[in-house]
TrEMBL record:
Designated name of the protein: Protein FAM136A
GO cellular component: cytoplasm
Top-rank taxon: Eukaryota
InterPro entries in the record: DUF842_euk (IPR008560)
PANTHER family: PROTEIN FAM136A
Family recorded in the similarity comment: Belongs to the FAM136 family.
Length: 141
């Protein structure tokens, strides 16, 4: 199970690194430059400066919200898939795992690991689509 979690983590981290390099860094750069210009105005009130900076940060906030939504959805789907694996196995082996023999426990765990690994593979294969949707979202800003 640990190996499967690490595989998903590496795949998501790799996607996030690519998104950061292709999209987020440039957005952050523009956001900081815009915010710096806001702060250069020595004659405006604090409220005007705060509103200006807030406006500069808007695109980055939207991008982060979109990423959080995509990754949250992926995580929820992956969790449901893993839970479905568990539910299917308890239907076959019985609901009380404490009553399994050692052999049943071993078989249950092996089959659960295989099923969850399949879930992970299916969801890792969705990452390019997530990246594609995010790029499209960024272009729409």
């Amino acid at each position: 199970m640990e190996e499967t979690q690490q595989k998903v983590k590496r795949a998501v981290d790799s996607m996030m690194d690519e998104i950061d390099k292709k999209h987020l860094r440039e957005m952050q750069k523009r956001m900081f430059e815009c915010s710096a210009k806001c702060c250069s105005n020595q004659h405006s009130s604090r409220e005007v400066i705060e509103n200006c900076v807030d406006t500069c940060n808007g695109g980055m906030r939207k991008a982060q919200g979109q990423l959080e939504m995509e990754l949250g959805t992926l995580q929820a789907q992956l969790s449901r898939c893993a839970m479905s694996c568990y539910d299917d196995l308890t239907k076959q082996f019985g609901p009380d795992t404490s009553k399994y023999t050692e052999r049943q426990t071993q078989e249950f765990n092996e089959r659960l690991d295989r099923c969850v690994a399949k879930c992970a593979d299916e969801h890792v294969s969705l990452l390019p689509k997530i990246q594609e949707r995010f790029a499209k979202f960024i272009r729409s800003l």
